[in-house]
Model the fold of this input.
Amino acid sequence: MSKNPEHILFLTGKLAEKQLCQILEKMQPEFTYSVHQLGLKVAGLMTAEMIGRRLKDTFNADKIILPGRCRGDIDSLSAELGLPIERGPEELKDLPLFFGKAAHHYDLSKYKVKIFAEIVDAPNVSVDDVVERAYYYQQQGADVIDIGCLPGTAFPHMEETILTLKQEGFTVSIDSLEDDDLLRGGKAGADYMLSLTNKSIWIADEVNAIPIIIPEKHGDLSSLDHAISVLQAKNKMFIVDPILDPIHFGFTESIARNFSFRQQYPEIEMMMGVGNITELTHADTSGMNTLLLGMCSEMNINHILATEVSQHACRAIKEADCARRIMYAAEQNNTLPKHIDSSLMTVHDNSPFPYLLDEIEDLASAIRDPSFRIQTSPKGMHIYNRDGLHTATDPFDLFPLLKVEDDASHAFYLGVELARAEISWQLGKRFNQDQTLTWGCATELNQSTIDLHTFKPAGTTLQKN
Done:
């Protein structure tokens, strides 16, 4: 016996009713539906309290969908009406996507890749400051705090630094090419040590830290074979880093090298030093991290070394954290890394302009009040009220047409909103009047935790190879 399709009640306002009906009709949904407007003009002004007062018939619905901007306690309203209630998307044009995504609930709590966050100048940083930075990195997603040594620089407080971090509950790695640093760090309690070669592999017998090994000669994968065989014979855990090189200094070849190593050793744990790309390329790091973590997912590379040295890379760890979760969800669900999460859409939006100019003109023609509405389309910014519709690509072209010279507060408000609209139009972002612009994980940072510029060293250090 077939089950009856779900019946959904959509609540809306007078201005949006016609458009909502058109969108639902074009969707040809698997559910049945009723559309009911509550007697108010603008759906976005609807509140849960208002619905409780005005809704007298639920039309035999199994569920109610409210406008996305509806305010109030919908849980209490749901209990009162005895029906599940959800807020829909803020823009009606997003309804098809809203229902398309409803069948997919991606679990972003899981990931495979561990993030090693390097404090590149640890010898020059006090123990207290290292701990503070470690908490910041942990908050942004780091799993391991990497203590970076500097060539020719004394590090008398190394042991105290590692011991303090361990007492605070952190997982720690010591990062150097000097045998003495690695030995001291391992004996002090570091969980990992990077990087070892054939010549320094003996250190793995002296301490309990898990070694990360690199080629003895840069680019020579064959130089890894001996170290791998030695560690495997002793049944020791280890990680291999074939080294990722900066762009124009061997980047493409190093990607091929990582792939070649994975083909030769499909089961060995690997690391990728993503900082050599994010730090040494002046482009938005969110895209770089996304692509690099996608490569890690495909090659089953489960450890990355990340840094936040350059000021343009000040979100790199957070971005890597988002990217590893998205890639894991995509892999587990055998799908593309699309429509899973928008955290990495920092500069653009996947659907920046829900309305075309002719649709905005239709909306504007129905307005009978003096309040200004602002929208964007591929053609530019549009502002309208009962007195007409104006379109421009520069907000200054609109100001003389709005006649708000004698109303400072109104002029200020419109200036702010039009500035947001201009930024959105220029970048290809979604603009919603009366809402701040969204920047994904680029603004999901607790600035009160740490001053991002406090610990920035003067130079940028390439991954040691």
Notes: The chain has three domains: 7-102, 114-332, 357-438. The CA atoms of residues 66 and 87 lie 5 Å apart. The longest helix spans residues 408-427.
